[in-house]
Amino acid sequence: MNTVRYEQNPLVTPQDVKPYHEGYEVIGAFNAGIAVYGGEILMLLRVAERPIAPEPGIVLAPVYDEAAGAVGVTEIRADDARYDFSDPRVIRNVSTDAGFAYLTSISYIRIARSTDGRHFRVDDEPFLYPAGRFETFGIEDPRVTQIGDTYYIVFSAVSPVGIGVAMASTRDFRSAARHGLIFGPDNKDVVLFPEKVNGKYYALHRPTVRSVGRPEIWIAESPDLLHWGNHKHLAGLREGMWDSARIGGGAVPLRTDKGWLALYHGATEDHRYCMGALLLDADDPSKVIARSAAPVLEPEADYERNGFFGGVVFSCGAIARGDKVKMYYGAADTSMACAELSLGEIMEGLVYE
Ligand code: MAN
């Protein structure tokens, strides 16, 4: 595969983002949703900020306080045996199996704007900020889908009651309307298709099941983008391959003359994240026609292998122009990068079902 990583990579790094919270540091500007608006390319960045601990031995966990309307911190002693700090992303309570107790950083969505798609200016203020009880641990990994002149933004809403997927919409990327949770917990990686197919909206989604089943890609339909039904299992994990442990929708599906091309992420048991593609039927996206044998992008560059959580390429948006697919992606849960892929080569690498 003739992949061209931009020579300006990484395009946006934590150093380019001024912390919004006093006493915090920006540790990630990554997993951005992509929009083309007013002649510019916008990244809707997931910005992760971490409170700076006052002294060694103390860990601060950021939590949005609904009553105060602001982010506060919970103080935990680093030698507290009830907690496991080994994953840099989360603080686990070892006495329960109820998932993680806290995240180590809090994420919100901030816009970076560019006229050439390579040099970005980051807005001073957040665009979407945690609000309400389903977002107290932050909002993450947005995908932006333009339908008519409205841009729909779907993102993970994280809180102690689970990870669901919320929706907001905007027409100007200055203000946004909120539409609540469109998928309940635990779910992630929701991607809305850019147009109706046979009179219905479609979305990819990724339930994170805890009893039986595995983290795989599903598809659902809706009359109005708010109410989703007719759920179908779309694609599963593939043992021994690069997508053997976890998969989820990535970029907004691209319409091609062979069907819908959905760039998705796949991870192994040891958390190595790659990007690949699914080709879905043009008239019935719940039918998989073909799927990448090998990844279309793997973590190879230094900024993809090393970072806050290394060995990760994770795309939430791509722009197609002729044979060129400009795939923007989060690298190592730290920064943003872009790679140009050839649509023809992606198609040649597919195995038909
Ligand atoms: C995982 C990772 C983190 C994320 C949490 C909550 O641990 O994807 O980056 O913050 O889930 O969504």
Q: How is this structure best described in words?
A:
The strands form 7 sheets. Strands 19, 20, 21, 22, 23 and 27 form a 6-stranded antiparallel β-sheet that branches. The chain has a 4-stranded antiparallel β-sheet with strand order 1-26-25-24. Strands 2-3-9-10 form a 4-stranded antiparallel β-sheet, with no helix packed on it. It has 353 residues and is mainly β. It is globular, with a radius of gyration of 19 Å. It is built from 2 helices and 27 strands. The protein has a single domain, classed as Glycosyl hydrolase domain, family 43 (Tachylectin-2, Chain A, 5 Propeller), CATH 2.115.10. Alpha-D-mannopyranose binds at residues 89-90, 103, 140, 156, 158, 163.
Class, according to the CATH hierarchy? Mainly Beta
Question: Gyration radius, to the nearest Å?
Answer: 19 Å
**What small molecules accompany the polymer chains?**
alpha-D-mannopyranose
Q: How many individual β-strands? A: 27
H and E string: EEEEEEEEEEEEEEEEEEEEEEEHEEEHE
Summarize the structure.
This protein is mostly beta strands and 353 residues long. Helices cover 3% and strands 52% of the residues. The protein has a single domain, classed as 5 Propeller (Tachylectin-2, Chain A).
